[in-house]
Amino acid sequence: MDMGSDEGGAGPTPEPLPGRPYLPPPDIFVFPPRGPLPVSRGAPERRLARVNRYDRRARLVAYEKLTTTGTIRLSFEVVDGLPFEFLPGYFVGIEADLADGGQCKSPYCIVSPPEAAPSFQLLVRLVPEGPLSCYLAALSVGDVIRFRGPSGKSMIPKEIGTELVLVATGVGVGPFVSLSRHLLSGGFDRPVRLYWGLRQAEDLCLLDDLDDLAASHENFSYRISLSQPPPTWTGLRGRVTETVPPLLETLAGKHFYLVGNGAMIEEMRLALSDIGVDDQLIHRETFFNVKHRADPRVVGEIRSRFVANDLFSPFRHQEAGLFIPKRKASRQKP
Asked: What is the CATH number of domain 163-311?
């Protein structure tokens, strides 16, 4: 069909289709763009084109079984030739293929100091219902893993001259080993006090590492608290939320770090905040129980165990009758 000449003629008027009204030709002709058409953000074509972020590779060079209850330490060396730099508190995300054809992904905090790069260590607790921990526990020396990172939030304190109070449960102690080695080897001279909560004596590990830090740096100390201790246990007895508060004589000038069980972290954070600790001085890293909602009664019990009273605490002032509001506080509507 002749659509007109290049001189601008519109050509003959086309015949309307049977049963359709005649529409005049448009004043503006729209031509489709050259090349592939853009697709919507949720289109399958776009999902297929996504870049796999787990494109880095590391080889397992050492496998250490630390406890009979399922804690292992894995040492890797990066083999992809790309830069690998991190700070205490950083993690790597690991991806693995499952036997049923699926995949699992999970982050793991690095427990070795930054000076060890491009090698790194992970502290892993074998969880039967956790497919990735089972995958890592089944690795053999020489196996290569897929990962992304390192990335995360640095644990290095920004405040100069602050004492560090490190509270961990389970394998949450791992990044504290990295932080302590890095800071102390660099000349950090403020006290570093580590409190580590475990369930039973069979969960104990890394004692050589902790003893070495304590022997090499007089400003480092650690204490272990068992919630289910044997009769012969001479360390702290109970959960860290029970045993640590009475040991802190003062709260000012301290930076608190809470890592591990989300229940412990949320309960301790709220208690510390209630007795005057600035929330910016409470570093948190939750390994599980991420969405835990603290029971106010439990938080109140933890708050009452603190002996330090060097910071302003509205709760204690009100309990002592020193601060009485003029009117009752009312709950605002959401």
From this structure: 3.40.50.80
